[in-house]
Design a protein that fits this description.
- By secondary structure, this protein is α/β, with parallel strands linked by helices.
- The chain has a single domain, classed as Zn-dependent exopeptidases (Aminopeptidase, 3-Layer(aba) Sandwich).
- 30% of the residues lie in helices and 16% in strands.
- The strands form two sheets. A seven-stranded mixed β-sheet has the order 1-3-2-6-9-7-8, sandwiched between helices.
- It is globular, with a radius of gyration of 17 Å.
Length: 245
Amino acid sequence: MTYQPYTLHGENRSSRWLITCDHATNTVPPDLGGTLGLPDADMMRHIAFDPGAAGVTRALADALGAPAILSNFSRLVIDPNRSEDDPTLLMRLYDGSVIPGNRAADAAEKERRLNAYYRPYHAALEKLAARQDDTVIVAVHSYTRQLKSRPSRPWHIGVLHAYDARLSDPFIAALEKEPDLVVGRNQPYPGHLPGDAIDRHALHHGRLNTLIELRNDLIETHATQTAWGERLAPLLAAALEQTAQ
């Protein structure tokens, strides 16, 4: 099968929802030799992808009857949730791990990876987003409970947003009514980087949007990923009804 830098799920669905997963896999493409020189243990960590996020993305898309797009290259190859001029676009050191396959990556190699993986992913995402005028984008990510030498993070779920919180505000309010959840607004980190995927595909077009961060120890299995997708879908649908659009 020919390598493709993204996968589509339910691409012919007509829902206005569009679910995205920028860090879906830890795949290193064949033309990079399938490895960046890291041990398997590191490639299974959050430094390489967002563990569990792909399963939640598919389950959420199914529950909402929505299409989804998922990246098919590790964030260590090149990060699709960064602008092309972001200094963290191609990492050489991440949370204590040196990435050998990126050590010698020069400007030409960066441009090659942009053309081979990053730009095709974003072109496909924009094509899906532009299929109708009222697209609502939900980005699904996961985060690790604790980075090396950092405090443990208490939230079960974070909802990230920039200046457009039309969807995030009622969604957060609904989540905060759930008695078993600790919810973070723009946690575990701020919700906006200039040129990131939400900025590029939602904010610049005035599209309703939100970004979900789930703690990855809560979504380790297919069953928990499905449960979270099915749990979040009605809360998102109710939040959308409260927006002006």
